[in-house]
Amino acid sequence: MRPASARRRCIANGAVRRRSSSTRSKSSHPHANADTIDTGSLREDLHAWVRASLAGPLTDVSLVHAIMHACMTNPDLARAMRERMNDTEDDPFEQLFARAAERGEIDPDSPALPYLQLVLAGPYILRQFFEDCPPDEKYLIGLIDSVVLPALGIK
């Protein structure tokens, strides 16, 4: 059971950025701008990504849930979405983690790396369901600092 204060912390969803379905730019990728973020520290890179992501379309939980439902009922749409989400050529997180490995912050063969996309995307989809509020900066930075970075061997 949630305390009333948790419900009050929830902020209304932002407006949806509308884009043509034919547009395939990096800014429409769910990890938009992760490839342009380079603070010199993985922790700060991920924190900067959180702040940028909260201004994007993933914060509209209703939209994300509608897309998920549409994918469950339309195999062609589901396949297209999976291809887009798993496009390693266009995966900015791969670049972000590669830079961290080049700096010696993480092991490039860390067993945690294959799971991080789902760990980082999960709150955008599930927090509304479980806690009745969308993810916010404090929650996402807490996830990064207490789950993601320790999984990569960063204290």
Output the helix-strand order. HHHHHHH
Please give the count of helices.
7
Contiguous low-pLDDT stretches (5 residues minimum) are 1-30
Strand content: under 5%
Distance between the ends? 31 Å
Helix residue percentage = 40-55%
CATH architecture call:
Orthogonal Bundle
The Rg value, from CA coordinates, equals 16 Å
Briefly note the CATH topology name: Tetracycline Repressor, domain 2
Please tell me the total number of domains: 1
Based on secondary structure, the structural category is mainly alpha
Query: How many β-strand runs?
Result: 0
Basic shape: globular
Domain Tetracyclin repressor-like C-terminal: 37-147
InterPro entries: Tet_transcr_reg_TetR-rel_C_sf, TetR_C
Biased composition (Basic residues): 14-29
Keywords: Transcription, Transcription regulation
What topology emerges from the helices and strands here?
Elements: H1 4-9, H2 42-53, H3 61-73, H4 75-85, H5 92-102, H6 116-131, H7 137-151
